[in-house]
Amino acid sequence: MASDAVKKVQNKLFRGGNAEPEALQDREEPALTIEIPKPSSAPTPPPKLGKSSDPSPKDSTEPREEQLQTYRQRLAQKLGGEYQGTEKYRLLQDGQRERHWKRWGPYLSDRQWATVREDYSANGDAWSHFPHEHARSRAYRWGEDGIAGISDNHQRLCFALSLWNGEDPILKERLFGVTGHQGNHGEDVKELYYYLDSTPTHSYMKFLYKYPQRRYPYEDLVAENQRRDREVAEYEILDTDAFDGDRYWDVFIEVIFFAPIFYYQSNSSCQQYAKDADDPDNIYVRITTYNRGPDPATLHIIPQFWFPNTWSWPLEKPPMPSLTGSIRGSDDNKIGCVTARHPTLGKTHLYCLPSPPPVGPSNNFEVDPNLPAVEPELLFTENNTNFCRLYGGTNETPYVKDAFHDHIIPSHRPPTSDSQEGFFAPRIRARTAPSFNARRPDIPESGPCTPFPPTSAFVNPEMKGTKSAAHYVFKDVPGNGGCAVVRLKITPSRIGKDASLEHEIAFDDAVEERRQEADEFYAMLVMGPISDDLKQIMRQALGGMLWTKQHYRFIQKEWIEGDPGQPKPPPERKFVRNREWRHMHIEDILSMPDKWEYPFFAAWDTAFHCIPLAVVDPAFAKSQLDLLTREWYMKPDGQIPAYEWNFSDVNPPVHAWATFRVFKIERKLTGKEDLAFLERVFQKLLLNFTWWVNRKDQGGNNVFEGGFLGLDNIGAFNRSEPLPTGGTLRQADGTSWMAFYCLNMLNMALELAKHNPVYEDIASKFFEHFIFIADAMTYKEGDDEISLWNEKDGMYYDAIEFGPGNAMQLPIRSLVGLIPLYGTLVLEPTVLNRFPGFKKRVEWFLDNRPEVSARNMANMKVRGREQRRLLALASKERLVKILEKMLDEDEFLSEHGIRSLSKLHKEHPWGMDVNGQRYEVGYWPGDSKSGMFGGNSNWRGPIWLATNFLLIESLQRFYQYYGDDLQVECPTGSGDYMNLVSVAEEIQHRIIHIFGRDMQGRRATNGGNTKLDHDPHFRDYVWFYEFFHADNGRGLGASHQTGWSGLVAYHIIQSGVNCRLPKTPKTPRSLAHHYFDDVNDTVSEAGDEAKSAFSAYADSVYTLGDLSPDAL
Fold first, then answer.
1. What gap in Å lies between CA 403 and CA 409, rounded to an integer?
2. Residue pLDDT, tens place only, 206-259
3. Considering only Cβ atoms within 10 Å of each terminal Cβ, which end of the chain, N or C, has fewer?
4. What is d(CA 534, CA 1060) in angstroms, rounded to the nearest whole number?
5. Of residues 572, 665, 582, 653, the one with CA closest to residue 616
């Protein structure tokens, strides 16, 4: 028979009985929810405080509900009419440095093993040097990883989930996938997990991991993927039998911060709890698991709490952090406690609350009062490498990183030796013994060392160490939805000072209150009647982007030279990669493309991440763009680092575009103009622009090379290497990217010139540079001209120049020929009138250099709608010819966006033979069939959201100049003509259709997988893949690339209100009035002329539903 105290805990945890505190007994509590909340149509401020002459709940005649007050209610009362939501208030406080609300967040990587930073090999083979098999036993040097992991912003203390199903050979404490060597299409995670929700300050986060009850098929996944060639699809976890019969666990992890949710006016202990909302160091974790299988099953839930290893690398150990365990509370309410002490972070506690026994749906999830509570076993070890297991060496300490595996899983334990009393021999290991290979000294080395006694225990019985875990065992969880719950709290508070540790009902109320605040925040983003499905997609996309923040640490000097406390790395390692980036010293929270497949920043990815991020957290978006131009990132010569595999690679120059877009998004949403940010980044980009001109225009003729420029395998040759044909590659996209760069720098200079006239001259400089780049699309070599434009085909192509007058175009219809459309900007009459010097220079150039200004670009002398001027690479005639092919469903236009390669090349591949080798480009709508750039991405057909985004914006800008006078057939051959903004919205809708449900409940991104489309435990969740199949929209590449694929959230915000269901007829109508009604034109600050929402530095503040590419 369980004690009354245990029953009391059980009942409170599962809403059973009436064991709540007296003041709460009459309060109706919401059930534990697992679905993604559907935000209300509009935020409603919480009700005001109830008034009572006597604040005591016992004596008051007021309703009990009015005596309880949430944090939101108190905040709304405090702010009155200025209240805009609790989360926005936190963002304001964080920006003003009143509270450090972002001190804690989801800053752990999803994969630290096999990264460049952990690679100390001689040949740079990161995949082999630190494989998954080492990760559980080997201390990381540069970061930590885990499932749904969180840490402080300097990654001094970490928390993450681990699990065991009773079948696996190892604990599930990190996500598994095949490496670049093992996958038939490169590296790929082989897990089912979803980032479901997050607010910008991470006050509420939700994550779902699906864990098989069968043995995890590690070996099968590796073997089958290695067996397959590039002609077939990847072998995924759902292709195995791991999830057959629905024998798996749904594991929901909710993490909330600084969260009291009610306030007892007459109870001093609860008043202390109410102050919790102003403390960023209070973290609540609720882990809710559901048995989806038909039969009872046992699950081990093992949350881990640890310090990263910072002591094994220097010769002298730094001050050591420590974890110690204890049992706190009264005799009838004992709680396991792990106390963490860190030299700079201070002291905090992890409280591991007892859990009720598992319950099932057959009895309405009621707790059996006769069953005991599930109390965790606290485990402790050291976060040190197990040299004995990995290399046959001797460990520094008796307790090592993989101790929990040995302690919990008998089959994981090493065999014991008859020659010693336990597994650990009473030997010492010099701290300088090799750790980069299997060598070990024959005799003990001199130097600092640690003796340890023999013992047969794997975890420290003294309950101390640098790594800890709470081991919960839930036996026989009922099938068909049986549930088990774990609650933990990280807080500096003590028991007796924190009501949520004594009254578990308060714990759940805290989680619910934070969720409601998240609902309130996201409801404010929705303008108009957007479907619930699109709202959910938008929220998951933005939540995923906020989840994929990561603490990234890289100090080049230490990395390339090795650590004093470890042996020297192989000398040839210095010449493998990144040798010239000696200045680099990074330790920041960065937005990652994908925390498993790409757990490192990538410069042009970051630019696209910042657009949707700016909608929810402009300060974070600005920080990302600012950081990449700081002196500890950017090289002294002005080059921006690309990504850690090769910082010297060249990404498209999109940083200026993103910087100005983020500046205008913040201005539109908040009315704030952060000119300091704009000017600071602009000044650094002047250095970067100069680097491009000096390094990537070898002939000085404004034709830029640039290499692969992020488009990996789009060409017949590897564009980052010397051509096998000889000669020089003249890149249409490289030159167009620089024209795009010029126009964005011009735009920024005009904005800054409003406040500092010096920038007017700089604007003139970029105007002229743009004209020269545009003219170079037909460039001169001596008396001969070589054009990148093919008049017959109506497309831009790359060309190989073999010598003066000897060149050959490469007639491949690809994104390379569409990128010239990016180079477009509309100049308002207001701009020219406001800056007479700039206007005079423009008019002089048009009058005196007509041979330059009128060739290969739109005619600037012809004024468009509202007397606007157009700066664009493509003239009207060329624009129409390009759009004819871009909007042809047999070429570029897919049901799901714009293809990266024309479908024409399916039947007509282009290639050439060079020295007996065939180089060819064919239409590959799915995965790559080439090993170029690792083979894990493909630009020969699939749809990429980032490049589509810029095409959409370009069409919107062209509309601002041409208006309804330019109508094109869309799709080509359909007989349906529309203006360019209507075309832009049509492309937006097709992209949204990748993710949205059609009439049959299917999502294109799921690739026809019935389980993903229709299973009630899968169908509402969405993965945001790296790119998408050109013909059917199936997701491909990295499965959690919520970086630039998160742009779909922006499309939904902008045009989701008009988006039809996938595979349904569109409603014919003109969208021009929706976007650009006369009422949406504003009066210029410099005069009475109407200004376009899509033109240079428009200042209008519309609703978020009228988002535009430049007015933001």
1. 10
2. 999 999 999 999 999 999 999 999 999 999 999 999 999 999 999 999 999 875
3. N
4. 11
5. 665
